[in-house]
Amino acid sequence: MAIDVNCVIVGGGVTGLMTAARLAESGRRVRLIERDLLGAGATTSNHGLIHSGALYARWHPEIVAACRQAQLAYRSSFPDCLVSAEPCWYFATSKTLHIYQTLWRRHDIVHNRVDRRLLGAVFRTEGRDIAACAIHEVVIDTRALLTVLVARCIDLGVEVSVGLTADQILIDNGRVRGVRTGDGVVRARQVVVCAGIGTRDLLDRAGSVIGAELASRLEILTAYPVP
């Protein structure tokens, strides 16, 4: 069975649902495909932390601005999903923390030095060079956010299919033509892949040349320049 829509979204996490809602708002007919349950991946299994970019300031400064923009967007768009939380502590040796503080000031990331006496309640500090700074990160109730986004998509007429796997992105004469699923073909001129760790596999099988450029957050965290 073939279905015609304007856009297909592959992946029913926060990114996929947000993208589907935005495209539907613009008047497009949108189909969202999720192989599991909505939000079954990293969306609801993490702690809902929207990073300020502080963690990436040294090795990946190019994404700090995007992190800050994301915090502003979540605060303004989903105020009812915000969770009150204590500041996040970033700890390191005194020398390393000084490097980060310099970078945080450069990026206007507000931070406060943690009293060493407070550190003693968490770490064994005697005879150790350890210091920390506190930063207020944005924390989201991911299940509340998921509920809001799903309701918004349904209200906007997004066609949502769960338990349906996108097997192949269809390409013809260098142009996207849709997605092949276990139920048939969904024809569309636009396909947006928001499939998390499954994104690269789909792109590679479609012959995309950018798959190798993609990196997960874990890969970014463990990627350091070679001296």
Structural write-up:
- The protein has 8 helices and 13 strands.
- The strands form 4 sheets. A 4-stranded mixed sheet has the order 1-12-11-10. Strands 9-3-2-13 form a 4-stranded parallel sheet, with helices on both faces. A 3-stranded antiparallel sheet has the order 5-7-6.
- It has 227 residues and is α/β, with parallel strands linked by helices.
- Helix content is 32%, strand content 24%.
- The chain folds into 2 domains: 2-46 and 142-213, 3-Layer(bba) Sandwich (FAD/NAD(P)-binding domain); 49-140, no CATH class.
Judged by helices, strands and strand pairing, the structural class is alpha/beta
Content of β-strand: 15-25%
CATH class of the largest domain: Alpha Beta
The amount of helix comes to 25-40%
- Provide the CATH superfamily of the largest domain: FAD/NAD(P)-binding domain
In N-to-C order, the SSE pattern is EEHEHEHEHEHEEHEEEEEHH
* Largest sheet geometry: 4 strands, mixed
Overall strand count: 13
- As for the CATH topology of the largest domain, it is FAD/NAD(P)-binding domain
Q: Write down the overall geometry.
A: elongated
Question: What's the Cα radius of gyration?
Answer: 21 Å
Domain count: the total is 2
Numbering strands along the chain, what is their spatial order in the largest sheet?
A: 1-12-11-10
Report low-confidence residues grouped into runs of 5 or more.
none
- Mean pLDDT, nearest integer? 89
The N- and C-terminal alpha carbons lie at a distance of 55 Å
